[in-house]
Design brief:
Oligomer: single chain
CATH topology of the largest domain: GMP Synthetase, Chain A, domain 3
Number of strands: 8
Strand content: 35-45%
Largest sheet: 5 strands, antiparallel
Order of helices and strands: HEEHEEEEEE
CATH superfamily of the largest domain: RimP-like superfamily, N-terminal
Number of helices: 2
Length: 155
C-alpha cells in the first residue's frame, strides 16, 4: 500500500486548518477490502459524526486530486473511540481530568494496575486519584513506568 507518511503529509494541512488532530492513519484489510482508516479528534479528545463526515469528504477530495493512491480502497474517517490508547502523556494535557486505566511496568503502592482520574500531568509524570476499596487515594508515577494507558469509561 501507499506510504502512510506521504498520505499524512497530504492531509495534515487540512486537519490543522480545521483544528483537528490526527490520532492514527493506517491501512487495514487487503484486496477489494482495503481500508484507509483515519482516526481524528478535536484538541479536547472529543469527536462528532458531522465533523467526521465533513473531514472525510475533504480528505477524499485531496487524495483523489493528488492521485496518491493507485489501488481501490475505502476511506474510513472515525473517532479513535471512548477507550482509546494514550500514546504519550502529553495527550492528557488538553483534557479536563480524564478518567484512565493504566498498567505500570513496576508496582506503585504494591499494585501495577489503576483506574482513576488524572489530577495533574507535568514533567513527564502523572498524578492519579483512584478508589481503593472505600478510600480515595492519590499516586504519582513517571511516564517511563507506564506500560499501557487508555481512556476509561466511568460507570
Amino acid at each position: 500500500m501507499e506510504n502512510i507518511d506521504h498520505l499524512k503529509e497530504l492531509i495534515l494541512p487540512l486537519l490543522e486548518s480545521n483544528d483537528i488532530q490526527l490520532y492514527e492513519l493506517k491501512w487495514t484489510g487487503s484486496g477489494k477490502d482495503t481500508v484507509l482508516q483515519a482516526a481524528i479528534m478535536k484538541p479536547d479528545g472529543s469527536m462528532d459524526l458531522d465533523t467526521c463526515a465533513a473531514v472525510s469528504e475533504k480528505i477524499s477530495e485531496i487524495l483523489d486530486e493528488s492521485n496518491a493512491i493507485r489501488n481501490a480502497y475505502t476511506l474510513e474517517v472515525c473517532s479513535p473511540g471512548a477507550e482509546r490508547e494514550i500514546h504519550q502523556i502529553s495527550e492528557l494535557e488538553h483534557m479536563d481530568h480524564p478518567y484512565v486505566y493504566v498498567r505500570l511496568l513496576h508496582p506503585t503502592d504494591k499494585k501495577i494496575e489503576f483506574t482513576g482520574t488524572v489530577k495533574a500531568c507535568a514533567d513527564h509524570s502523572v498524578t492519579l486519584e483512584y478508589r481503593d476499596k472505600t478510600a480515595t487515594k492519590t499516586i504519582q508515577f513517571s511516564e517511563e513506568n507506564i506500560e499501557f494507558m487508555r481512556l476509561a469509561v466511568k460507570f
